[in-house]
């Protein structure tokens, strides 16, 4: 079994490794490399960063990012969830999402949104299972490695 706990600065090497592994799949993000810790830290909400740990090893992470600096959007966040390749399909993503959604609810976040590549069927299915709905498809929204990619905009509202 694994446990979910708040992410700390000391977790960064493992979080960065899992992030890079997700990036390498080509179906997780438009990012082409993991950020430095300082960039990650500055762009994520401090009270909404979690890791999944099994036998002392971090096997996944999730975090919320603000979508705007405007006060009226203080309760709207975007999220990320990444699971180590060796642990996919074992419920880690679901546990992380459940804990992240509880954290968001307790923290006054009323909308969580995410953009997912349509080809990432497992991630789309995970989001549907935890209450996200499809808002729309963004055709050719950006390029990754020289190819135009679509994303699905998903959201969960309280």
Written overview of the protein:
- The chain is an alpha+beta fold and about 160 residues long.
- It has a domain at about 5-110: Aminopeptidase, CATH 3.40.630.30.
- The chain contains 4 helices and 7 strands.
- It has helices at about 10-25, 35-45, 90-105, 120-130; strands spanning about 5, 50-55, 55-65, 75-85, 110-115, 135-145, 145-155.
- The protein has a 7-stranded mixed sheet.
- Strand 4 (about 75-85), helix 3 (about 90-105) and strand 5 form a beta-alpha-beta unit.
Short description:
This protein is an alpha+beta fold. The protein contains four helices and seven strands, in the order E-H-H-E-E-E-H-E-H-E-E. It has a domain at 3-112: 3-Layer(aba) Sandwich (Aminopeptidase), CATH 3.40.630.30.
Q: What structural class do helix, strand and pairing data support? A: alpha+beta
Largest sheet: 7 strands, mixed
User: How helical, in percent, are the residues?
Assistant: 25-40%
Q: What is the N-to-C order of secondary-structure elements (H for helix, E for strand)?
A: EHHEEEHEHEE
Overall geometric form: globular
Number of strands: 7
């Amino acid at each position: 079994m694994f446990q979910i706990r708040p992410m700390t600065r000391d977790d960064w090497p493992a979080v960065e490794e899992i992030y890079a592994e997700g990036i390498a799949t080509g179906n997780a993000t438009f990012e082409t490399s993991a950020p430095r810790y300082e960039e990650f830290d500055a762009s994520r909400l401090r009270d909404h960063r979690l890791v999944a740990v099994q036998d002392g090893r971090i096997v996944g992470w999730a975090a919320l990012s603000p979508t705007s600096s405007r006060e009226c959007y203080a309760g709207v966040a975007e999220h990320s969830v990444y699971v180590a390749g060796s642990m996919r399909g074992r419920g880690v993503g679901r546990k992380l999402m459940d804990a992240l959604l509880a954290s968001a609810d307790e923290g006054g976040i009323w909308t969580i949104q995410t953009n997912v590549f349509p080809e990432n069927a497992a991630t789309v299915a995970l989001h549907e299972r935890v209450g996200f709905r499809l808002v729309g498809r963004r055709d050719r929204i950006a390029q990754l490695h020289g190819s135009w990619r679509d994303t699905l905009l998903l959201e969960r509202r309280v």
